[in-house]
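User: Hi! I have a protein structure encoded as tokens and I'd like to know what sequence might fold into it. I'm fairly new to this, so please keep things simple.
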């Protein structure tokens, strides 16, 4: 058996949020069940965001309560303190908050300065960390649609230190608009792991420029703890121009399985799940990249 890779499916949140029309909770849960049946053990299942911001997530409590009965590594996105309260109410044990490394993207994404976001995160950690693990997603970790690509890793390390100092030990480095390249990914991941050896790191790579697979592989070879992706490559940040889609889970599974890594996921079953999802969401997608393999 080869080296284990933790593939984290985030499609039920990052993918579904881009659908133009509401996908009923029952349909979402069917797709989630097909992912679990393929061997997926780590999944972001929803977002406790205000329905006016993302109407697709108005069933967050229903989806979460049903999924929590499955006893897997499940987590949800929380945009603010109220989201954390709602997540705790339904019994979530793991949540993630998002702050952008880019000041301009943070304002576009959640209408806050980074300092305001860190103040909010600190209150969430203080009030909820006894009940839930609080993780931090670093949006635009490799580059920003407004500020361009980042070449210096020092601002990222300083950013991570702010979260680490308040007790966070789980971080995701997000390539929000797909600006990263393999060399940059290796350097940023290696530096983060060396600076914070007591923390768990994952990457969330977008495939905007066709480098999703190679960038994710670069992160794995640099020692990353987990890789995030979405079934069918569905998704992309609604508040980041050019964020056309995520790296497809089935593509990652095929690549890593063929390379001898242990993903724990059956490729034939994950491909069937992708085709099932495609049948459900075809014509109901506001992004540009819905990648479904046919082999």
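Assistant: Happy to help. Inverse folding works backwards from shape to sequence: for each of the 295 positions I chose a residue that suits the local structure. Here it is:
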């Amino acid at each position: 058996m080869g080296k284990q890779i933790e593939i984290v499916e985030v499609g039920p949140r990052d993918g579904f949020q881009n659908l133009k029309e509401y996908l009923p909770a029952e349909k979402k849960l069917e797709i989630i069940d097909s992912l679990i049946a393929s061997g997926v053990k780590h999944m972001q299942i929803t977002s406790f965001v205000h329905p006016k911001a993302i109407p697709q997530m108005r069933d967050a409590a229903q989806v979460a309560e049903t999924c929590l009965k499955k006893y897997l590594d499940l987590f949800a996105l929380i945009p603010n303190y109220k989201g954390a309260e709602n997540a705790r109410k339904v019994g979530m044990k793991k949540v993630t908050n998002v702050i952008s490394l880019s000041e301009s993207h943070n304002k576009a994404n959640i209408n806050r300065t980074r300092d305001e976001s860190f103040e909010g995160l600190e209150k969430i950690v203080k009030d909820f960390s006894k009940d839930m693990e609080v993780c931090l997603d670093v949006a635009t970790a490799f580059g920003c649609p407004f500020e361009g690509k980042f070449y210096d890793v020092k601002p990222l390390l300083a950013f991570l230190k702010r979260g680490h100092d308040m007790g966070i030990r789980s971080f995701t480095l997000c390539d929000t608009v797909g600006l990263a390249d393999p060399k940059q990914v290796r350097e940023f991941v290696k530096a983060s792991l060396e600076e914070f050896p007591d923390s768990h790191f994952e990457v969330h790579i977008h495939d905007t420029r066709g480098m999703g697979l190679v960038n994710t592989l670069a992160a794995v070879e640099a020692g990353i703890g987990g890789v995030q992706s979405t079934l069918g490559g569905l998704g992309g940040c609604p508040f980041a121009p050019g964020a056309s889609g995520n790296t497809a889970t089935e593509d990652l599974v095929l690549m890593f399985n063929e390379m001898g890594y242990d993903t724990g996921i059956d490729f034939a079953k994950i491909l069937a799940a992708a085709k099932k999802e495609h049948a459900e969401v075809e014509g109901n997608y506001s992004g540009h990249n819905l990648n479904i393999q046919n082999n």
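A useful reference point when you look it over: The two ends are 24 Å apart (CA to CA). Feel free to ask if any position seems puzzling.
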